[in-house]
Design a protein that fits this description.
Blueprint lengths: L5 H24 L5 E4 L7 E7 L9 H14 L9 E4 L3 H12 L4 E6 L4 H9 L3 E5 L5 H10 L3 E2 L2 H8 L8 H8 L10 E5 L4 H12 L5 E7 L3 H8 L31 E5 L1 H15 L5 H19 L4 E7 L13 H6 L5 H13 L8
Parallel strand pairs: 2-10, 3-4, 3-6, 4-5, 7-8, 7-10, 8-9
Antiparallel strand pairs: 1-2
Length: about 375
Amino acid sequence: MKRTPPEAKQGDRIWVNDVLGRLEKEAARSADTHLLHLAFDGFPGIDFYFKDEAAHASGSLKHRLARSLYLYALCNGRLRKGQAVVDASSGSTAISEAWFARLLDLSFTAVMPACTSPAKIRDVQALGGGCDLVEDPGQVHARAREHADNGACHLDQFGLAERATDWRGNNNIAESIIGQMRKETHAEPSWIVCGAGTGGTSATIGRYLRYRRLPTRLCVAEPRGGAFAEGWRTGDRSVRSSHPTLIEGIGRPEVEPGFLFEIVDKVLEVDDAASIAAAWLLEFLLGHRYGGSSGTNFIACLQLAAQMRERGETGSIVTLLCDRGERYRETLFEPDWLAVNSIDLAPWRHALKWAIEKGVWQVPSP
């Protein structure tokens, strides 16, 4: 291996110090995201909270992860001045990584499945990033490694997400939630609900809850047939998904390295149509559009609340609004697209209305 001359290393450290300073300033300028509260007639004594991660500058929960991945690459000496950056992503992480690449004056390429929402592809390109579209979604990791073999720094969200984030604190998402809940009626949530894409968010939350010795339990909301659900049930990390999903960002085809089964208390699987119907309902309830994974989370919250109500329990449930729904205006929020994909929202709309009014979760008949 060719060694870097000492004087070049010193120059690289000067550059690293500069970009770390830029990241520190960006974090200081970023206000924490809002924690929105809803209460429903069907669930007296149970409060619902939605952490609006779509409010980040790059539009999603992945803003936190992208910052952490750049910090991890810089502080481990993996990212050098003038080096290109690459990652495999279905969209939101790529947009956030492109946002930070522009902040740091770096060249960025997102390796994406060709079926990614057109709006997400445009968002990456608008931020100055390139999109390498791959027809077979199962080959995005291999294509990203090809870029790395040609000299790019692979941020590797799927391989590094759970270790790149400081799960003990430093205003990570779990610490932020618990801090914002401090003055609420049920300050220690009964449940926190999140999806699993890289596994980084569930790992951060699960670890933090244990670190703080909190009674709060962690539920992962997963598209039906996703690999994480089957792997969590069986303990088998080699399983594959049994059903494709239309919900981008979660429901991975295989168990990613960052999926930590041991710190997840429950996994609930959600049909795609239910997730999409819930995303439409969230727009009505909150006045803003959010993506399909936010709908998946909402469905899991309602199921947990129904179980709590049956047991006569009160408390609070917190979940995440993951990304902006405008990115899905040509897919999840487009009636023609829903028809092409045989998605009928009507039965799930009825189920959702019944749940929030009566406190009972009923799956529509096939």
